[in-house]
Amino acid sequence: SRGAGELGSKGAGKPRKLDSSLAPSSMSGEIRFEGVWFAYKNDDYVLKNLDFTIRPGEKVALVGPTGAGKSSIIRLLCRLYEPTRGRILIDGIDIRSLPQAELRRHLGVILQEGFLFAGDVKGNIALGETYSLAEIQGAAQATNVDRFIEQLPQGYETQLRERGMNLSGGQKQLLAFARAAIRNPRILVLDEATASLDVGTEALIQQALDHLLERRTAIIIAHRLSTIRNVDRILVLKRGELVESGSHEELLQQNGLYAALYKLQMLGT
Questions:
Q1: Nearest to 37 by CA among 100, 82, 104
Q2: Which of 121, 194, 132 has its CA nearest to residue 158?
Q3: What is the pTM of this model?
Q4: How confident is the model at residue 202 (pLDDT cuts 50, 70, 90)?
Q5: Coil, strand or helix at 141
Q6: With the C-alpha atoms ordered 66, 185, 234, 41, is the resulting torsion angle positive or negative?
Q7: Sign of torsion, CA 18 21 22 28?
Q8: Which alpha helices (H) appear in the chain, and where do they start and end?
């Protein structure tokens, strides 16, 4: 298996024009949380009266200490749980009225530990859907994952071990991007991986992510400073409440919780 460093070794420093044919055709994808409260048990609320709107095409990062409610927001948006009170709307439609299959078509979800199963590469991208090899290759090219697939012994037919044990962290992330790209969602939900990567791999992942975000609404649990700086807006959470909202620069000027987190966590001081 090839290491993370080798992923970036083949022309990593040369950004290329990525195919934009996978961008969503109609630009909608507004997300609205209206008075959302949520408790996993009894009245122990992990989200408290959340009210915010993410406009179509807007990129929003969720930032906050551990336990602030970032993951719970994503779980509710994906309907893994229902709000205790309030409602969540996509393009003005309460997501509880959408069939799960319809919701999954709108949402591309990339979690930190995207599950890879024992099977070939193309099957791990298609995930049981009937995509042609050309469509799979197109998604791989659009997310830079083709660079390492082409170096595998049997290319797209190469067998992966369960949980992708024979892949590096960076390679797994790019495969997860391809899996989302092929489904052409209007909204991207991303829990950014925290794994440290070498510079070459980081550049490939950032370029693939930038391309994936084009013309899509995105809600990101952000860990990378490069991502946080490039989003349109940051929502800062503390103990389930929305305490600050603004751009990176605006929030630094406010000198509140975000500025403190930035100094502590992002800069490692």
A1: 82
A2: 121
A3: 0.82
A4: confident
A5: helix
A6: negative
A7: positive
A8: 4-7, 70-77, 100-106, 121-126, 133-142, 146-149, 169-181, 199-213, 225-230, 248-254, 257-261
Tell me the C-alpha distance between 86 and 83, whole Å: 6
What pLDDT does residue 262 have?
Answer: 86
**pLDDT beyond 90 at 195:** no
What is the C-alpha R_g of the chain?
19
DSSP output for 221-258: E---HHHHHHSSEEEEEETTEEEEEE-HHHHHHHTSHH
With a CB cutoff of 8 Å and minimum separation 6, the contacts of 136 are 122, 125, 126, 156, 178, 182
Domain boundaries, the chain: 28-266
Closest Cα partner for 23 from 250, 266, 240, 217?
Answer: 217
The pLDDT tens digits of the residues spanning 128-153 come to 888 999 999 999 999 999 988 999 99
Q: Which amino acid is at 162?
A: E
Handedness of CA 162, 166, 168, 170 (dihedral sign): negative
Collect all residues with Cβ–Cβ distance below 8 Å to 90 and sequence separation of at least 6.
29, 30, 31, 32, 98, 103, 106, 187
* Single-letter amino acid code for the residue at 133: L
- Looking at the domain 28-266, which fold is it? Rossmann fold (3.40.50)
